Amino acid sequence: MNNHSSIVLIIGNSRLHWALFIDKTLYSTGDIFHLSASIIQQLAQCPTLDNWLTAISLPNNLPIIPDYPIPLILASVVPSQTALWQSYPHLRLITLEDVPLERMYPTLGIDRALAVWGAGITWGFPTLVIDAGTALTFTGADNHQCFVGGAILPGLGLQFASLGQETGQLPLLKPGLMISLPLHFAMNTSDAIQSGVIYTLLSGIKDFIEAWWRLFPGSQVVMTGGDSNLLKTYLYQQVPDIAERLIVDNYLIFQGIGNIVIR
Ligand SMILES: Nc1ncnc2c1ncn2[C@@H]1O[C@H](COP(=O)(O)OP(=O)(O)O)[C@@H](O)[C@H]1O
Ligand SMILES: CC(C)(COP(=O)(O)O)[C@@H](O)C(=O)NCCC(=O)O
Ligand SMILES: [K+]
């Protein structure tokens, strides 16, 4: 008997986040850089699981007989990337209308809606999601499964990149260069950038979490995204009582999509 498998792709501004569902089980996940138009065209012309596994660099030893063409469930916050997938034969594009949250505004990012839905069904409502991706976003939902709003700022990598690219003398730093926090008052340029970016980011995160807990005392706070583990490590050193209550879960969006479309 064929297994009902599907590929889920979340297109973020830095990377693609993919998952393979076999029946209702989240079988494997990963992150890759955006695929080229020609690879996407090849997948659209021959959407076998084998071709998919090659494209997402996963070993080809799955114990299943997959569907053909393998369904693709897509959620994207990058319209130019979404456009490249329109020719895929078995495509389901997820939009805000698919997400059962109340009171979302029409331009809300689908990644934020899915992540807060995934956090609520996994960890309970109310919930605050902090997505530490290209942008860093806060997205809240209350115990009536209503969207409560949020905030958007440049993420860790983007803060370093903007300083490195938009100034004449500052080096381009990457996140993760240091695991322990720098001195606040640094004596060289690289440390000064890291201090400025990291401490203001941590204070901002602390401020938003405390503001959330004033509205929803005891609520879960869940962090996700490419910089989530690093930021949690920093938070532990700066505000351990908050970090201890913070959940890191990098499957939120997949759980949200799985709950909505894979039944
Ligand atoms: N292997 C990696 N390649 C690229 N970025 C990474 C990697 N590991 C962690 N990151 C961090 O992930 C962040 C982007 O997060 P991600 O969740 O991929 O973003 P998006 O969902 O916007 O595509 C960057 O700031 C970067 O520091
Ligand atoms: C805020 C975002 C850029 C975050 O994208 P990401 O960092 O995950 O790539 C994305 O969710 C988006 O384009 N949102 C639309 C605006 C909004 O949510 O209000
Ligand atoms: K993201």
From TrEMBL:
Subunit record text: Homodimer.
- Annotated active site residues, numbered on this chain, are D111 (proton acceptor)
Instruction: Kindly indicate where the leader peptide sits in this chain.
Output: none
Q: Which PANTHER family does the entry link to?
A: TYPE III PANTOTHENATE KINASE
Catalysed reaction(s) here are: (R)-pantothenate + ATP = (R)-4'-phosphopantothenate + ADP + H(+)
The residues that the entry says bind substrate are Y105, G109, I110, D111, R112, T189
| UniProt key word Metal-binding | yes
Cite the cofactor comment.
Answer: A monovalent cation. Ammonium or potassium.
Name the UniProt record assigns to this protein = Type III pantothenate kinase
* Protein's job: Catalyzes the phosphorylation of pantothenate (Pan), the first step in CoA biosynthesis.
Q: Chief subcellular site?
A: cytoplasm
Record's subcellular location: Cytoplasm
Give the E.C. number(s): 2.7.1.33
Q: In which pathway does it act?
A: Cofactor biosynthesis; coenzyme A biosynthesis; CoA from (R)-pantothenate: step 1/5
Catalytic EC class = transferase
Q: Which domain of life is it from?
A: Bacteria
Keywords for this protein = ATP-binding, Coenzyme A biosynthesis, Cytoplasm, Kinase, Metal-binding, Nucleotide-binding, Potassium, Transferase
- Return the Gene3D superfamilies for the record: 3.30.420.40
